[in-house]
Design goal:
Length: 391
């Protein structure tokens, strides 16, 4: 069940809620009330469409007509607010499929526990199970009153089957999408492409992808200030998602010879083996380089000025002496309804941010708080912690 699937519910019931008080004050007969409600919801007054939405709309109109005098307008509005929840309509569909009301009553009970409307109904002395039972009876009566009740009932059941098949299809699509998540090797290649583009390196039209490595050729143009000209170097780049071993070094050396390149780089996600490091000074490896992606970035990225500023700011504000550890909280939001379900408390915000950094599925984190609660000091404090680890 998705929120989008039930977007029509609020549009269907909101106009009905707006009519409750005027209808309660009017002297219309029940038949006139039913017609007015059906037309307000945009359906013909005499015959419902043979789909779930049409029968549900007719059932709500009949329910409101039956309960308007007994409940009164204010209590009835609260019940209708409950009926705008997708969980209730989904429960009605399940009850239709099961042929009895228990699925609807269970959906109502769960919704009243999860949402604030449940507290409002209890405070008003409204029994949601009794009201949902009346609604279910009205629903069944609408089906029975149609010209071909068996046909309509079959159509509704088939609609339910179609809905479930559609849900299964979407679940399968999600699973397929998850299996398409980039592998560590593809992620490394994407990171290298972005970094080389930032350095204005050019890619040749050459790409090899194997189970344990990928291979590209880049062109690096450098200026010669003495001869006042530019020279372009061709470099074979191989990426390895695991550890660089001696066999990888041999493969790179052969690739450089095959493509008549000026050099070769082996870039690893994880590490370079000690055996490879030991032989890198040998003459046959003079034009080769082996390192991790982080080490590659450190060769060209100069963070010295920022690090000097950060250390100076920490000392100036005496954050290392005066900083007080902060707690934090995070709202738990229902992904379907976007309603707040609860709140998680964390004793130390450092621990929460550390968990977020280690989470491979992370997107972004926002530090929110009132003026003067320590947001800036925390970011400087945490940056200083990362600096010490970096050193």
């Amino acid at each position: 069940m998705t929120t989008g699937e039930w977007a029509w519910l609020a549009k269907l019931i909101s106009p009905v809620i707006s009519m409750i008080t005027p209808l309660a004050k009017s002297r219309l007969e029940q038949s006139q009330v039913v017609i007015a409600l059906r037309e307000k919801m945009g359906f013909p007054a005499d015959h419902p469409p043979a789909d779930f939405r049409g029968v549900y709309a007719y059932a709500i109109a009949d329910y409101v007509t039956q309960r308007l005098v007994t409940l009164g307008d204010e209590k009835l509005k609260k019940v209708l607010a409950l009926l705008t929840l997708p969980e209730i309509a989904d429960g009605m569909r399940s009850a239709l499929n099961d042929g009895e009301v228990s699925s609807l009553l269970e959906a109502g009970e769960n919704a009243c526990k999860a949402f604030a409307i449940g507290d409002e109904l209890r405070e008003a002395g409204v029994d949601e199970k009794a009201e949902l039972t009346v609604l279910y009876t009205a629903f069944q009566q609408v089906v029975a009153k149609t010209r071909l009740p068996k046909e309509v009932a079959l159509t509704l059941v088939l609609n339910e089957v179609d809905r479930k098949v559609d849900g299964i299809t979407k679940d399968v699509a999600k699973l397929v999408e998850q299996t398409r998540k980039p592998s560590p090797l593809h992620e490394l290649e994407a990171h290298l492409e972005g970094w080389f583009e930032a350095l204005h390196y050019e890619f040749e039209n050459h790409r090899v992808e194997m189970p344990d490595y990928f291979e590209r050729i880049i062109r690096i143009t450098q200026s010669d200030p003495i001869r006042r000209r530019h020279k372009t170097y061709r470099i074979v780049v191989r990426g390895d998602a695991d550890e660089i071993k001696l066999s990888d070094l041999t493969g790179l050396r052969n690739a450089v010879a095959t493509h008549r390149a000026d050099g070769g780089w082996l870039i690893a996600n994880r590490r370079v083996s000690p055996a490879v490091k030991k032989v890198m000074d040998q003459p046959e490896n003079e034009v080769l380089k082996c390192c991790t992606f982080d080490e590659l970035i450190d060769e060209d990225a100069d963070f010295s000025q920022y690090l000097e500023w950060l250390e100076g700011e920490i000392k100036r504000l005496k954050i290392d002496e005066r900083y007080v550890a902060l707690a934090c909280c995070k709202d738990e939001i229902d992904s379907r309804t976007q309603q707040r379900m609860g709140k998680s408390q964390y004793e130390d915000i450092d621990d929460y941010v550390a968990q977020w950094i280690d989470d491979p599925a992370k997107e972004h984190v926002s530090i929110l708080g009132e003026f003067g609660t320590g947001k800036t000091w925390f970011t400087l404090h945490y940056a200083e912690k990362a600096l010490q680890e970096y050193k």
